[in-house]
Specification:
By secondary structure, this protein is an alpha/beta fold. It has a single domain (2-244), classed as Stationary-phase Survival Protein Sure Homolog, Chain: A (3-Layer(aba) Sandwich), CATH 3.40.1210. Helices cover 22% and strands 26% of the residues. The chain is built from six helices and 13 strands. The strands form three sheets. Strands 3-4-2-1-5-6-7-13-8 form a nine-stranded mixed beta sheet, sandwiched between helices. It has a two-stranded antiparallel sheet with strand order 9-12. It has a two-stranded antiparallel sheet with strand order 10-11. Helix 1 (14-26) packs across helix 4. The chain starts with a strand and ends in a 15-residue tail after the last helix. The relative contact order is 0.14.
């Protein structure tokens, strides 16, 4: 079984390296590591289309090799699918991310984007993220202990050797930074962002005004059964996600709008 290991924090990130070592120790896996050469957090599904991409072969401290790409997490998945590292992977494992990816935040996440690219290509995928030791549900800084997350993730990969997820579905896993009290299968929760327009008392070298617009301490709707509530309570949140964004209920609504009439009356061609 060939496993592509990638992330958005960069190939040297401790979260990726902790998981890589555990997957190698699992045995029976061809672990191919292709990751960005530096941090690409919050790049979502961006790709590099207007420039060629450089790749550097990296030797890790255990003698295994990986590939550092000067592109995005999605670029890394595409490299693997096209044969870098030995051939098309059977499973994509993205993470372990430094920081949680919960609720609405998953649409910004490069970690989740790499897994989404897998299911777009028909390859099963897992996205893995770890809350910092500071706890709380904002984007706080702090230390990370990846021991529990790496062990749980390796066992999930092992389970996927014999248990298949539904087609076109990825697994998004978030680990709490506090003591783990259990595991919960969840749905995505709802973030409450604290963004505001703040003009800073400075300008850049070109005299332009400088603003901050994003807050770092968002809240969330405390709804039972969501990934946000599970992680806040110290549980590992395991959420199935698919890529079909179609509002199937809205199809009939739009069909009732008589859209053809919006074309108007057009004069016949001469």
């Amino acid at each position: 079984m060939r496993v592509l290991l990638t992330n958005d924090d960069g190939i040297a990130a401790p979260g990726l390296q902790a998981l890589r070592r555990r997957l190698v120790a699992l045995g029976g896996l061809d672990v191919v590591t292709i990751a960005p050469d530096s941090n690409r957090s919050a790049t979502a599904r961006s790709i590099t289309t207007r420039a060629p991409l450089a790749v550097e072969e990296i030797t890790f401290d255990d003698g295994n090799v990986g590939y550092a790409v000067d592109g995005t997490p999605v670029d890394c998945v595409r490299f693997a699918e096209l044969g870098l590292g030995g051939g098309r992977p059977d499973l994509i494992v993205s993470g372990i991310n430094h920081g949680a990816n919960l609720g609405d935040d998953i649409t910004y996440s490069g970690t989740v984007a790499a897994a989404l690219e897998g299911i777009v290509l028909g390859i099963p995928a897992i996205a893995l993220s770890q809350q910092s030791s500071g706890g709380g549900m904002g984007y706080v800084t702090g230390s990370f202990d990846f021991a529990v997350a790496a062990e749980f993730s390796a066992r999930m990969v092992d389970r996927l050797r014999s248990k298949a997820m539904p087609e076109a579905t990825l697994i998004n896993v978030n680990f709490p930074g506090i003591a783990v009290t259990g595991v919960e299968v969840t749905k995505l929760g709802k973030r409450i962002y604290d963004d505001e327009l703040r003009l800073l008392d400075k300008t850049d070298s070109r005299g332009r005004r400088i603003y901050e617009i994003y807050g770092w301490t968002p809240g969330y709707e405390e709804l039972e059964g969501t990934d946000l509530s599970a992680v806040a309570a110290g549980r590992i949140a395991v959420t199935p996600i698919h890529f079909d964004l179609t509002d199937h209920g809205g199809l009939e609504t739009l069909r009732g709008w008589e859209l053809e009439s919006m074309l108007g009356t057009r004069a016949p061609a001469a």
